[in-house]
Design brief:
Elements lengths: L4 E2 L10 H13 L9 H20 L7 E4 L2 H24 L13 E5 L4 H12 L4 E5 L10 H7 L4 E5 L3 H11 L8 E5 L11 H4 L3 E5 L9 E5 L25 H18 L3 E3 L12 E6 L6 H7 L3 E2 L16 H5 L4 H4 L2 E5 L6 H21 L1
Parallel strand pairs: 1-11, 3-4, 3-5, 5-6, 6-7
Antiparallel strand pairs: 2-8, 7-8, 9-10, 10-12
Length: 377
């Protein structure tokens, strides 16, 4: 079998050797309950505290702002659960004369975009289906592939409890609304799973109340965390689970960006006008390591190309959505990518160890695969 080249780093990353070493040592020496007083427990507590400080530093927060979770899905669920509870408790307090009543009618209102990860979108849809929340899905612009600020502001209602996908400008506008007298506070959340370890992320500069962190996207174990700006004090946080009482710098993206640009350059050189880059939008940023690309042709659907590649290991989109079969990505369609182009999409995401030699091999593998599929037809 030829050596395979991994370009699916947005799905998951291999843990760094120092990560494996740290986890192995912890399993051997710090296996105790961190709430206990014996040595193995004390070591576990010290490691957790140190890890919390490291994660906080990575996102510009404080150690007490970090809540460890099982992954990004739990973190996103926890945020939306909190938004619903926040609304209910405010309404209850208003009924008892302990808080203002403006906005405390009907159901809590959640604003998301139409390109959310399933761990946000499906939770919001579930809450709406169960009659626990109203949900507005703001479409992204087909010109910029971004949520436009004015579209978000237009969606705000008196009973809006949370806005998901907050960038700096949206956060500033929402915070201005929050300053209005007797208005229900709108909570702000962003899912930074794909950003961390690739671009600089500072929760305080963004102005968000919550920020989702996913370890296995940046060479760490398959664990998650949630940044909360002052959990339980400045920002509400309500548990979904009850029981034990636990849980009360990364390299810049320059190398990965240069590797991605070289990948795009080679794809253009080989496939010329048959190539379509699905993440190039004027005025919009994209991840420094990610190339979402379609090779145009009636037999070159993304899944078909990848299943015939001898060297390339990649995907057509988020691994979490693999159950959707061979349908085009709803995110690409929402961004205005034509259906026949979206069907051919490949998501190529390079990592820290990806070399130009790897890129050359992958592009040649794609060239041979395209030729094979077209000859078979």
């Amino acid at each position: 079998m030829p050596h395979r080249i991994y370009m699916d780093y947005n799905a998951t990353t291999p843990p760094e050797p120092e990560v494996i070493k740290a986890v192995t040592e912890a399993l051997q020496e710090a296996w105790g309950n961190p709430s206990s007083n014996y040595i193995a427990g004390a070591k576990a507590k010290a490691i957790i505290n140190h890890s919390r400080e490291n994660v906080a530093r990575m996102v510009g927060g404080k150690a007490e702002d970090i809540i460890f979770t099982s992954g990004g899905t739990e973190a996103n669920n926890l945020v939306l659960h909190t938004a619903v509870e926040h609304f209910r408790k405010n309404c209850r307090a208003a009924e008892q004369g302990e808080a203002h009543s403006n906005g405390c009618t009907g159901l809590p209102h959640i604003i998301i975009s139409n390109v959310e990860h399933d761990s946000v979108r499906l939770v919001a849809e579930h809450l709406q289906r169960d009659g626990k929340a109203d949900v507005t899905s703001v479409p992204v612009s087909k010109t910029t592939a971004r949520v436009e600020v004015e579209d978000v502001i237009a969606a705000v209602r008196p009973n809006t409890s949370i806005m998901v996908r907050g960038d700096r400008e949206i956060c500033q506008r929402i915070k201005s609304l929050n300053k209005q007298h007797e208005r229900l506070r709108i909570l702000l959340h962003t899912d930074a799973a794909q950003a961390l370890g690739k671009i600089r992320v500072d929760a305080c500069e963004l102005g968000v109340d919550y920020l989702t962190i996913v370890g296995h996207k940046f060479y760490a174990p398959r664990i998650g965390a949630l940044y909360v700006n002052g959990p339980g004090t400045r920002t509400p946080l309500y548990p979904m689970l009850f029981g034990g009482g636990q849980e009360r710098n990364f390299r810049p993206g320059y190398h990965m960006r240069s590797t991605k640009l070289y990948l795009e350059e080679r794809l253009r050189a080989v496939f010329k006008d048959r190539i379509r880059f699905n993440s190039h939008y004027p005025g919009s940023d994209n991840l420094p390591n990610t190339c979402n690309v379609s090779i145009l042709g009636p037999t070159l659907q993304g899944w078909r190309v990848l299943s015939n590649c001898r060297r390339l290991l990649a995907s057509v989109g988020a691994a979490c959505h693999s159950g959707s079969g061979n349908r085009p990505s709803h995110i690409l369609l929402s961004c205005g990518v034509p259906s026949e182009v979206a069907a051919n999409a490949l998501r190529l995401s390079v990592g820290r160890g990806t070399t130009k030699e790897d890129v050359d091999i992958v592009v040649e593998d794609l060239r041979e695969t395209v030729q094979l599929l077209e000859e078979m037809n």
